[in-house]
Design brief:
Deoxyribonuclease I, Chain A, 13 strands, about 25% strand, 9 helices, about 325 residues, seven-stranded mixed beta sheet, alpha+beta
């Protein structure tokens, strides 16, 4: 990942964080926000945060820690409406935009089942880029009963009187419907997440969605001959990826998958995509006025120290990236 971020660029980053531990002080979330600040990610998708974002204490913690990292922020959170006994609730997504790009946001929201969160960014002449951070549950739940994301969605789908309550089937049909509604309004799509499904198989529903919604897998588009690799530490295939409208491909400056546990102790690779701002939005992003803050970023924090160190040769070998000619 190029640091500092190139001029006239926007960086989108996403990754399965494998849960964020709740504390009143929000130490874990603050570390994540500091990571986003130090990697200069304008937008970050937090996949599977495992927090009950219907809980006021959780929402307060998210906002307080994000504001410490950058006072110019917009946050949207998603988890199901199933009640949880504590702040812990499996699944969920969140999207956080920081800095000048927040001035472009015209709308934000989330799915009622906690499967995705989204932000819509305004460009020139009515252009809109819809950023979606999504999480699809595994093929089968870890336990036969319980509060897994699979069970939460299955329960809510039953309450909706769906004839088929399979969470994965409904994820595809509902997300496809949402994307097509956006496209009917001439919006460009950026969809990133942990889909627990490879695009390589002909029976892949995500592959079918790409065809039906005219989306392309950026990595395959830029690396057509690259061997498949694992994005889950105990897996063997690429189940975390980014799908975009064809019109956005020419705006891409670079893309990369990070080594496992390079930033936080998660079991998935992080994925970043850098765009040329002018090509992505059709114009430059206006600077926002500076806002005084109180101790926003801890310059001596463990995150700052860790991210300031260069990657070791072993890390470099497991970094998959592509920088395009400008």
């Amino acid at each position: 990942m190029p640091l500092p971020q190139p001029d006239n660029s926007n960086r989108f980053y996403s990754g399965n964080v494998n849960g964020i531990t709740y504390t009143q002080a929000g130490n874990a979330m603050r570390d994540h926000c500091e990571e986003q600040h130090h990697m200069e990610a304008d937008v970050r998708g937090y996949i599977e945060h495992n927090l009950d974002t219907t809980n006021f204490r959780v929402r307060e913690m998210f906002h307080k820690t994000t504001k410490l990292a950058n006072p110019h922020y917009v946050l949207t959170m998603a988890s199901s409406t199933i009640p949880a006994a504590t702040t812990y609730k499996p699944g969920g997504t969140a999207s956080i935009a920081m800095g000048d790009i927040t001035g472009r946001i015209r709308e934000q929201g989330s799915d009622d089942l906690g499967r995705w969160s989204f932000m819509k960014f305004q460009g020139k002449s009515g252009r809109v880029v819809t950023h979606i951070a999504a999480y699809q549950v595994c093929v089968r739940p870890t336990n036969k009963t319980g509060l897994t994301a699979f069970h939460q969605q299955e329960t809510l789908l039953g309450r909706q009187k769906q004839s088929d309550t399979n969470p994965r089937k409904n994820f595809h049909s509902d997300l496809k419907r949402f994307i097509k509604e956006c496209q009917q309004r001439n919006e460009d799509i950026y969809l990133a997440g942990d889909f627990n499904e490879t695009l390589e198989h002909s029976t892949s529903r995500m592959r079918s969605m790409c065809a039906e919604c005219n989306l392309v897998d950026i990595w395959t588009q830029l690396h057509p001959n690259h061997p498949d690799f694992a994005t889950y530490i105990r897996g063997s295939t690429r189940i975390d990826y980014c799908l975009v409208s064809i019109s956005l491909v020419s705006a891409i400056r670079s893309i990369g998958y990070e080594p496992f546990q390079f930033r936080s102790k998660t079991d998935h690779r992080g994925l970043y995509v850098d765009f040329h701002t002018d090509l992505l939005f059709g114009n430059k992003t206006h600077r926002l006025a500076n806002t005084p803050t109180r101790g926003s970023i801890r310059k001596t924090s463990k995150v700052a120290k860790r991210l300031s160190k260069p990657a070791t040769p072993m890390v470099v070998k497991t970094m998959y990236s592509k920088t395009l000619a400008t």
